[in-house]
Structures are given as structure tokens and as C-alpha cells.
């Protein structure tokens, strides 16, 4: 006991002896953005940002306050520069919902930039996917060389980085991954407040999976600690997007409220949060605002540059004490004032769709249609296609047609597949003329797999991961993105270069392709029958066809034959 | 095979084949025919069952109650259709959007080779309207289709009404795992083909159509609905598709399961099922049903809009509501429940329908004949050709057996050359090809120069080719094989018989009905025919 008392001042002095800049100043911000979509659905985007004010790359961090230790250790151990992981169920319908803030492909997606110090990237990648598989209770361990690619231009680091060597990047998707509560629970555990208080208390699994679209993701990247960028912090950004179908839930009414969507209301912010806010999108202009009424009304309106335009948002700051003064809870709701039917929805500036064409089980065509609905501006798109090896792409059939004319890509990178080893990778930079539809099509042949390579449900088909479209869209007005720390979280995920254009990444729908499938219902019978037919039928027919038959008049013969012939001669019959 | 390796037994066998050839052929023909007729006898057939596990074990609980809404939609649709003089595209679009579907249209134009029977026009123009119900939390990889043809006249108004009310009911449910496409296609088969070609982005039939925007992944199953009255007395299921293709038997079984559950009166080929299967009238009834199916399948013509889906490996059936003079009528609620139930079961599918049979005959709705049972019927008929071929072969291979003295004559005519055999066969094929292509290709030229209509031109050209064809092989054969050669015609017949046997076998595998109809008519002629008269 005495020893402890002796040691205590020593420990304290160690703490106090740290230089002042090493003082842990980690911060946590939480934010919920509610966006009424054009189709009448509501998108709720949660963003939780934990900042770790130590550099995981160079120093050994053993003390974690808000930042989850499990991720911090993974980053140090595998020398990760950036990590982006998303689990999604459903598909963001860009055409009817408008451009997404942050889309993710259906299933699971993981892309990681490793640090330059990594010698064997593939080994680290393999181990990392297995670790993440355990952390997030997902089948990420199915990521192997057959679905991993190294894109050259589509995925650039989002955080502070001077690495541009794309060999340090690995990208993989698992379009078949089913996302459910077992993935949500470990994700919620990474939050400093868990799901007990704060905005995360709204995340109840039962309601979240009663929706049209559900996407949760984890983004880890190094960021500047302050404006001068003198030191590096690590940012963990957890986002969760849900789209609620108000038509199904609300019996045809489009009104919504927090309670209707999540079956609970916000009662208090997370006490560890430095910032806790709810934003409600109120559109571009005043005309739209008049169509609905938001309760309780908020005095605070903010303008945020999103998608190249200033959008107005109503802001509820949960850290303001008077917000909970009148009522103990906050239930943000929206009522439409009527005039809800507004004809066909206006298509967004940029969207895409993909499909397989052709019939039969031998060949097919993968088509991607990319729409540029901008009235007068052309912009480039970076197109990434990953196709598994069992679809043999015929690269010479690649055609890119815009308005009936051939559109020549200005950059093209193609890595052919190797059977059972790696997938096809096709990356192209294509210029999209204004007001145009560009069709990219490429033919493929379906391979016949070995019979043990088929999954248990071979007739379901095989998934092809979505293609990725990274695009710089010209802004409507020149808007400057604010400081990383000061602006709302939802506007600062992608680093913006200048105000004249904004970055967006769209994913197309995954494809389901049937491969020629043997009849697995009676393999034993079939194998037995085939073997029998081949052995008996083929063998003897071949024998008959190739042999010539002659009646052999054998004079020699045995003793019995000689005797028989003598008897026959006596009887006057022809000898044998 | 030991029989064949032993020269003595081999000789005995060949003797049997040559001596008893005619009786063997007749017996074989009779067995084949008898086997076929026996297929309709109920104790010989199998009771149908749902093989697909994901559709079988659980019954869904249907909750469709919006029959009145269906009828009001139908009346509204009829009114708009009358005023629009065709498919009321704008109204359909508006209504579907109001229901909450993603609505798209596809317009198409098809030039017909012959003028339309009713309206005497050469060009068919139309617009298909379809709305996609997006399944929540699914990435549009799979879908189901409910289609209703919006044909000429005032047919199918009730079917469109039911489609719309089903769509609005389905929209409010959250259990969908596959997108559902609600399609109203104009001009029956032409519109359906245009839509399918647009959806799969292929061009098989030269239909010009607008770019299709909305898709919903791989279509797993489809159902086409035809109802032209407010109440129905029975439901008829149509299975025969293009070129005799059939949907997976599970589609029929699924329909049968819901017929039984909702106690609907269900028919196939317009015929009800009888309970007295063991009596002679019961057997005749089944035989009649099966023969109707054989005729329809053998024609190769799709008997409903569903038939065109089958090319794209989409299992589909057509359901036809029949309103006859029976007393008990079913309203839209029962029909809607049946379709709802079928869609919910199809929604449960985890794989494409593949478990059950693709090749079958249906002597009644609940009984089927599988490919393993019906193939021997045609096998016996084809056996005749093989017996005849063996007979010829044996005769050809030992011409010296005629003179018993053992001094084999030097072959008088010699074996017929390759050219003499190949020429008639090539000419036959050329005639066939010209019959297939020439009438359609040259009808335009014919109508320009002669005072005939398009359809007459085709018939006349076909006749002309036949007439020309009559002269050809006769003359060439004489020239090539020389006069009086038995070996010549025997070799030619041997090859033709084998060729015919192989072709009939192939056709029978693809389309049993067509193969059987051809075999039962051609084979006796082919077996008997041989050159006679002055040489």
C-alpha cells in the first residue's frame, strides 16, 4: 500500500510532465441531417466524427479517450493511411431521390490506402480484411485476390496524404453481403456514447431495417489538426444513411417526424460531444419551403454549400439548453401543406444505370448508361468496372457511344483477368458532352465453372459488383467550402478543390448474371449413368466398328475337334 | 454386344431384321402410337407437385380486398381508352405515378410484311407503359413482371383495373424482395416482343423502339393476365410458348395450388378436370386435353403473351379469366387474392425456377407426363426408320447372297459415287432454304410487277418453287446414278432414312409435339417409298 502512495506522485508527474501539445484534445461531434427527397421519401444521415489528436503513424499511442482503441491498433499494426468501409442494403435511387451526399454500393465495400512503409501490401490487406471481418461481424474474409483490384485513378486519398503510388491501394466489394443488426451493433459500439444517449439513441435496429435504403460506413483518414496544418490528427467518421419510405409507413401521407421514423425522440445530446446538431434540409429556394411546415420551428437557418449550390438548412443545436426547456424531448416533424403531386420528378444532373443485355447462357453484354443532364456544360467522368474472371470480357468489343457517335476515352487502363486469380479491371476517363446519354457496352462470355466452384444456390446467379463513377460536376454557383472544423460534417467528406466544381462518386446497381449451371439435383445418378453409357456403349461400339470379323477355318484345333470331325466324316456331314 | 461380336448370331440377327422387317416396322409403329395414346390414361401419369422448396412449404396469407377499386380503375381506363382511341398512355402514367411507382414508357414501331387483317395497315405503332415497384432494401437485381395486353377493342379493361389496384396494394407492403414491374403492353404480342427486346437490349425482329430507361435487373418470372368481365367463372391457364417452349412446371403447379386454396374453377385448354379418370369417357376427356396441347405446342406459336418471355429464360404463364354461363361467379377480390398469393410465393424464390420439369405434357391440370415417359412413344416410331436402314444396309453389304453358287460376280454398277449421293441431298436443302427465304424476300418484287397482293405473292412463289422442285431430283438422279442401279437408290435411301431419324430425334427433344406429329405422318411414307415403274 505504501508503495502505491509512493508511486502515485511519480505517475502524476509523468502525466504533468507531458508537453502541453500532447495533451489529449480529442473531440467528438454528432450530427443528423434530415432531407425530404423529391419522391416523398425522407433520408436521414447520421454523422459521428471522432478526432484523435495524435499521429498513429509515427508515435505509439497507447491511451485512447474517445477514439476506439480497436481501430487505432489496427491502423498502427497494418500501417494504414486511409480506410473506408461501408455496408449497404438497398440502392440509392439517384433518379428519383436526387444526388446522394455519400453513396455506397449494395453489399460491402472496402478500400484502403496503405502507408509507404508497407513492404507486402497484399499480406497486410489479407490480414486486415480478416480482422475487420471479426470487428464488424461481416464476411469480409471472403475478400481475396479474385475480387480485389488496384484502381489507378478512381480512388484518391480523401485525407492528408502525399502518397499517389496506387500500388498502395486496395479496393474490393462484396455485392452479395447482407447487412443486418449484427453489423450495426459493433458499429454502434465504436461510438463514445454508445447508443445510450445522444443522436445514436435513435438508432434502433428494428426501425432502421424497416426502410428502403440502409447504409453504414466507417471512414478513417488523417486530417489537419488546425488551419495551419502543423500537426496531424486522425479522424474516424461513422456515417449511417437511412431512407424511409413514407408512402409505405404513412398510408400514403408524406408527413414525417422523428418519432414516426425511429419510434423514439431525442432527449439529450451525448455529453462527450463538442457539437450535437440536427439539420433539416429546406431546399434551394423559398418556394419549396412554403410547401411544408417544420415543427418545432427553429430560429436558426444556415446556408451550406452542397453539390455546388447553397442550400438552406434549419438547425437545431442540441447543446443549447433552451431547446429542451419547454419539452423534455425533441421531435422534429414535417407537415406538407398540400400540392404534393408534382408530376414526373426532374432527373438529376448526373446519374447512371447498368444492365446486362442479350439472352441465352453463352454470351451477353454489360451496358452502362451515363446521363449528363447539364444544359450546357460538359464534364469528365472516371469510370471503373470490376468484373469477375468467370465472365470473360471481350475488350475489343468495348464501345462508348454518345449521341450516336463514338466517344474516345482520354485515359484507359485495362487489366485482364486471370482465371481463379484476379478479376478484370477497366478504368476509363470519358468526357460527357452536355445534355447527353453515353452508353458503354462490352461483351462477355460466360465461363463454365468446375462443379465444386458453384455456390449452394447456383441458379440464383452470380453478382457483378457495381461500377464506380467518379465525377467532377460543374457547380451552379461558385461556392467556397468552409473550414473543415467549422462547417457541418455532411459537407466536408470529400475535399473540394475549388468552388467551380464539386466531386461526386456514384455507384450503379450490381448485376445478377446466370452462368451455365449443371443439374445438381441428381449428380450421383447422372455421373453413374454417364459413366455406364460411356463405358459399356462406347466401348463395345468402338470395338465393333473398328474390328473386322472373319470366320476362322481353323484346321488345327484340339483333340476333341479331331475326334468330332472323324465322327462327322463317318456320318457324312461336313466337318467343323 | 456379345450378339454382334459372334458372327453366327450376327447373321441370325441380320436374317431376322431382313426377313421380318415389315412386321417389325408395323409392330413398332403400333407400339409407338399406343404408347402415345396411353399417356393420357390417368394411372400412367404422375400427380403434379411443387418441387421448389421456397414456394412449397409455407402458404401465404392473402389480404387483397380492393376489388371495387379494381373495377373503378377499369371503368376509368375504359373511358380514357375510348377517348384516346388506343392505349391511354398519359392517364396510365399519371395513375401509376400516383400509386407510387416509377413510371416509364416505351414507344415502338413495327413494319408488317402483310397488311393487318382487321385494319389493313402496314405499320403498327404503339406505346408500352410500365411502372416499377422498387423493393425496399434490395438493389434491383431481380424482378417479377405482371403484364396485361391492351389490345384492340374493349378487351382486358378489367385486367388493367386489377393490375392497377394490385399495384397500389403491393406498393404499401414491405415484404417485397424483388422489384415488380407492372406492364401494360399495346398490340398484344408485338408490344410484348418490343418491350422484351427493349428490356434485354437486343433486336431480333426488327422492331424499332425508343431507348428504354428504367430496368429492374434479371426478370425471374412473369405472369400475363387477360380478364374482360367484372366477374369470372373460371380461370384458364395457358402454357405453350414460342417454338413450343414451356415454362417450368412449377409455375403451373403454383397456379394450381392457389386455385385449390381459393376454390377457383381452373381449366387448361379450356377443359375442366374430371374425377372419373378410370372410366372410358374420363380417359377420352384427358386424351382430348392432351391432344389439344400437342396441337398447340406443335404449332410453335405463342398461345399468349407469356410465350415470348420464355426465350429470355423467364418462366411465364398466361391466365385468362373466362366468363361463361356457369352459375357460380368469382369477383375481383378472389382473382386478386390468387394473383397476390402467386406473386408473394414467387417473391420468396431464392433461385430461378429450375427444380421442376421443363418438358412435359398435361393431360389435365393436376397430372403431367414427363419427358422420360413420353419419349419412348417417338422412340418406337423412329425405330422404324432405323430398322429400314438396317435392312437396306444388310442388303447392300452382301449383294452376292443372291447367287448361292459362291462365285461372286464382279459388282456390275459399282458403288454410287459421293457426288451422286450428295447432289440430291444438296438440292433438297436448297429447295427448303428457298422455300423459307424466297417468298418473303421476293414478295415486294412480285407485287411491283404483277397484280397480286402480298399474301398471294407468297403463296404463288411457294407453289412455283414446288413445281420447279418436282422436276429436279428426278432428272439428276437419272443422270448421276445411271439407269437401273438398285445400289444407287438404296444407298440414297439409307442415308436419307438415317438423316430423317436424327432430325426427328432432335426436333422431338426440343418440341416433342411437333416431332411426334411429323414422325407419325412422315415415317410410314419414308419407310415404304421406293422407286418403281419403268427404269
From TrEMBL, chain A:
Coiled coil: none
Domain of life: Eukaryota
GO BP field: attachment of GPI anchor to protein
One Pfam short name: Gpi16
Gene Ontology CC: GPI-anchor transamidase complex
Record's signal peptide: 1-16
Keywords: Membrane, Signal, Transmembrane, Transmembrane helix
Membrane-crossing segments per the record: 524-545
Protein name: GPI transamidase component PIG-T
Source species: Eleutherodactylus coqui (Puerto Rican coqui)
From TrEMBL, chain B:
Gene Ontology terms: biological process: attachment of GPI anchor to protein; GPI anchor biosynthetic process
Residues in the signal sequence: none
Keyword tags: Disulfide bond, Endoplasmic reticulum, Glycoprotein, GPI-anchor biosynthesis, Membrane, Transmembrane, Transmembrane helix
Chain segments annotated as transmembrane: 20-41, 368-390, 418-437, 457-476, 497-529
Listed pathway(s): Glycolipid biosynthesis; glycosylphosphatidylinositol-anchor biosynthesis
One Pfam family matching this protein: Gaa1
Coiled coil: none
GO cellular component: GPI-anchor transamidase complex
Chief place where the protein resides: endoplasmic reticulum
Protein task: Component of the glycosylphosphatidylinositol-anchor (GPI-anchor) transamidase (GPI-T) complex that catalyzes the formation of the linkage between a proprotein and a GPI-anchor and participates in GPI anchored protein biosynthesis. Binds GPI-anchor.
Name under which the protein is recorded: GPI-anchor transamidase component GPAA1
Native source organism of the sequence: Eleutherodactylus coqui (Puerto Rican coqui)
Source lineage: Eukaryota, Metazoa, Chordata, Craniata, Vertebrata
Amino acid at each position: 500500500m505504501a508503495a502505491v502512495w509512493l508511486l502515485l506522485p511519480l505517475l502524476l508527474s509523468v502525466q504533468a510532465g507531458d508537453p502541453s501539445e500532447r495533451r489529449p484534445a480529442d473531440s467528438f461531434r454528432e450530427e443528423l441531417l434530415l432531407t425530404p427527397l423529391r419522391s416523398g421519401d425522407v433520408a436521414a444521415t447520421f454523422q459521428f466524427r471522432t478526432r484523435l489528436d495524435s499521429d498513429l503513424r509515427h508515435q505509439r499511442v497507447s491511451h485512447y479517450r474517445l477514439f476506439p482503441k480497436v481501430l487505432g491498433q489496427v491502423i498502427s499494426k497494418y500501417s494504414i493511411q486511409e480506410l473506408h468501409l461501408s455496408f449497404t442494403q438497398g440502392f440509392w435511387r439517384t433518379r428519383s431521390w436526387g444526388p446522394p451526399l455519400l453513396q455506397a454500393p449494395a453489399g460491402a465495400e472496402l478500400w484502403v490506402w496503405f502507408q509507404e512503409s508497407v513492404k507486402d501490401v497484399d499480406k497486410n490487406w489479407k490480414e486486415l480484411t480478416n480482422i475487420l471481418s471479426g470487428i464488424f461481424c461481416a464476411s469480409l474474409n471472403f475478400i481475396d485476390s479474385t475480387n480485389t483490384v488496384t484502381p489507378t485513378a478512381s480512388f484518391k486519398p480523401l485525407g492528408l496524404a502525399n502518397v499517389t503510388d496506387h500500388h498502395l491501394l486496395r479496393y474490393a466489394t462484396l455485392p452479395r453481403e447482407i447487412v443486418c443488426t449484427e453489423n450495426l451493433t459493433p458499429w454502434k459500439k465504436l461510438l463514445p456514447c454508445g447508443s445510450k444517449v445522444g443522436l445514436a439513441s435513435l438508432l434502433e435496429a428494428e426501425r432502421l431495417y424497416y426502410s428502403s435504403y440502409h447504409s453504414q460506413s466507417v471512414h478513417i483518414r488523417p486530417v489537419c489538426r488546425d488551419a495551419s496544418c502543423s500537426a496531424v490528427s486522425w479522424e474516424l467518421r461513422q456515417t449511417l444513411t437511412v431512407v424511409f419510405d413514407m408512402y409505405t409507413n404513412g398510408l400514403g401521407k408524406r408527413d414525417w417526424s422523428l418519432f414516426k421514423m425511429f419510434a423514439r425522440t431525442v432527449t439529450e445530446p451525448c455529453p462527450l460531444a463538442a457539437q450535437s446538431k440536427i439539420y433539416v434540409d429546406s431546399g434551394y429556394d423559398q418556394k419549396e419551403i412554403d410547401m411544408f411546415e417544420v415543427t418545432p420551428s427553429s430560429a436558426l437557418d444556415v446556408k451550406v454549400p452542397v453539390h455546388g449550390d447553397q442550400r438552406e438548412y434549419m438547425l437545431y443545436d442540441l447543446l443549447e439548453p433552451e431547446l429542451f426547456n419547454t419539452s423534455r424531448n425533441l421531435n422534429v416533424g414535417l407537415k406538407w401543406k398540400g400540392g404534393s403531386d408534382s408530376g414526373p420528378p426532374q432527373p438529376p444532373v448526373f446519374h447512371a444505370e447498368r444492365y446486362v443485355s442479350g439472352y441465352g447462357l453463352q454470351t451477353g453484354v454489360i451496358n452502362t448508361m451515363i446521363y449528363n443532364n447539364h444544359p450546357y456544360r460538359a464534364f469528365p467522368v472516371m469510370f471503373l468496372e470490376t468484373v469477375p474472371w468467370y465472365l470473360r470480357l471481350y475488350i475489343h468489343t468495348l464501345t462508348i457511344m454518345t449521341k450516336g457517335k463514338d466517344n474516345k476515352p482520354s485515359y484507359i487502363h485495362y487489366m485482364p483477368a486471370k482465371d481463379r486469380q484476379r478479376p478484370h479491371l477497366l478504368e476509363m476517363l470519358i468526357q460527357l458532352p452536355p445534355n447527353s446519354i453515353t452508353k458503354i457496352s462490352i461483351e462477355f462470355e460466360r465461363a463454365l465453372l468446375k462443379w465444386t466452384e458453384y455456390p449452394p444456390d447456383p441458379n440464383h446467379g452470380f453478382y457483378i459488383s457495381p461500377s464506380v463513377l467518379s465525377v467532377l460536376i460543374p457547380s451552379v454557383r461558385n461556392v467556397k467550402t468552409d473550414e473543415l472544423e467549422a462547417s457541418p460534417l455532411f459537407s466536408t467528406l470529400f475535399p473540394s478543390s475549388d468552388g467551380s466544381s464539386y466531386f461526386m462518386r456514384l455507384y450503379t446497381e450490381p448485376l445478377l448474371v446466370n452462368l451455365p449451371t449443371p443439374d445438381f439435383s441428381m449428380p450421383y445418378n447422372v455421373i453413374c449413368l454417364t459413366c455406364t453409357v460411356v463405358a459399356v456403349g462406347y466401348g463395345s461400339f468402338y470395338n465393333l466398328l473398328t474390328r473386322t470379323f472373319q470366320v476362322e477355318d481353323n484346321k488345327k484345333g484340339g483333340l476333341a475337334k479331331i475326334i468330332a470331325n472323324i465322327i462327322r466324316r463317318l456320318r457324312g456331314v461336313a466337318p467343323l | 454386344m456379345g450378339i454382334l461380336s459372334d458372327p453366327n448370331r450376327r447373321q441370325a440377327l441380320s436374317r431376322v431384321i431382313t426377313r421380318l422387317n415389315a412386321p417389325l416396322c408395323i409392330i413398332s409403329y403400333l407400339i409407338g402410337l399406343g404408347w402415345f395414346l396411353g399417356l393420357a390414361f390417368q394411372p400412367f401419369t404422375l400427380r403434379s407437385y411443387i418441387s421448389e422448396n421456397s414456394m412449397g412449404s409455407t402458404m401465404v396469407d392473402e389480404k387483397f380486398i380492393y376489388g371495387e377499386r379494381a373495377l373503378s380503375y377499369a371503368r376509368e381506363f375504359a373511358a380514357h381508352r375510348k377517348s384516346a382511341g388506343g392505349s391511354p398512355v398519359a392517364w396510365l402514367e399519371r395513375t401509376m405515378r400516383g400509386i407510387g411507382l416509377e413510371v416509364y414508357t416505351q414507344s415502338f414501331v413495327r413494319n408488317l410484311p402483310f397488311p393487318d387483317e382487321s385494319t389493313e395497315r402496314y405499320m403498327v405503332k404503339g406505346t408500352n407503359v410500365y411502372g416499377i415497384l422498387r423493393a425496399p432494401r434490395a438493389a434491383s437485381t431481380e424482378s417479377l413482371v405482371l403484364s396485361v395486353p391492351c389490345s384492340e377493342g374493349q378487351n382486358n379493361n378489367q385486367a388493367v383495373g386489377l393490375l392497377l389496384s394490385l399495384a397500389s396494394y403491393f406498393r404499401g407492403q414491405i415484404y417485397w424482395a424483388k422489384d415488380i414491374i407492372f406492364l401494360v403492353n399495346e398490340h398484344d404480342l408485338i408490344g410484348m416482343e418490343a418491350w422484351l427486346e427493349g428490356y434485354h437490349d437486343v433486336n431480333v425482329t426488327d422492331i424499332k423502339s425508343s431507348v428504354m430507361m428504367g430496368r429492374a435487373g434479371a426478370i425471374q418470372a412473369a405472369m400475363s393476365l387477360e380478364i374482360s368481365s367484372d366477374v369470372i367463372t373460371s380461370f384458364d391457364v395457358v402454357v405453350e410458348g414460342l417454338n413450343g417452349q414451356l415454362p417450368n412446371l412449377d409455375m403451373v403447379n403454383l397456379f394450381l395450388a392457389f386455385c385449390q386454396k381459393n376454390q377457383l374453377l381452373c381449366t387448361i385448354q379450356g377443359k375442366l378436370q374430371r374425377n372419373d379418370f378410370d372410366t372410358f369417357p374420363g380417359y377420352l376427356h384427358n386424351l382430348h386435353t392432351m391432344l389439344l396441347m400437342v396441337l398447340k405446342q406443335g404449332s410453335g406459336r405463342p398461345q399468349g403473351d407469356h410465350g415470348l418471355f420464355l426465350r429470355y429464360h423467364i418462366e411465364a404463364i398466361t391466365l385468362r379469366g373466362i366468363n361463361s354461363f356457369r352459375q357460380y361467379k368469382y369477383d375481383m377480390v378472389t382473382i386478386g387474392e390468387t394473383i397476390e398469393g402467386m406473386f408473394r410465393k414467387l417473391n420468396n424464390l431464392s433461385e430461378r425456377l429450375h427444380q421442376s420439369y421443363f418438358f412435359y405434357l398435361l393431360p389435365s391440370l393436376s397430372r403431367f407426363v414427363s419427358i422420360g415417359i413420353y419419349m419412348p412413344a417417338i422412340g418406337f416410331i423412329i425405330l422404324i426408320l432405323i430398322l429400314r436402314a438396317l435392312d437396306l444396309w444388310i442388303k447392300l453389304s452382301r449383294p452376292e447372297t443372291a447367287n448361292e453358287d459362291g462365285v461372286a460376280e464382279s459388282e456390275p454398277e459399282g458403288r454410287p459415287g459421293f457426288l451422286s449421293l450428295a447432289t440430291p441431298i444438296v438440292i433438297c436443302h436448297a429447295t427448303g432454304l428457298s422455300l423459307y427465304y424466297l417468298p418473303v424476300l421476293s414478295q415486294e418484287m412480285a407485287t411491283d410487277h404483277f397484280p397480286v397482293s402480298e399474301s398471294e405473292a407468297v403463296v404463288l412463289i411457294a407453289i412455283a418453287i414446288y413445281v420447279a422442285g418436282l422436276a429436279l431430283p428426278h432428272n439428276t438422279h437419272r443422270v448421276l446414278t445411271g439407269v437401273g442401279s438398285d445400289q444407287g437408290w438404296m444407298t440414297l435411301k439409307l442415308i436419307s432414312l438415317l438423316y430423317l431419324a436424327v432430325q426427328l430425334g432432335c426436333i422431338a427433344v426440343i418440341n416433342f409435339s411437333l416431332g411426334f406429329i411429323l414422325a407419325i405422318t412422315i415415317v410410314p411414307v419414308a419407310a415404304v417409298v421406293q422407286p418403281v415403274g419403268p427404269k
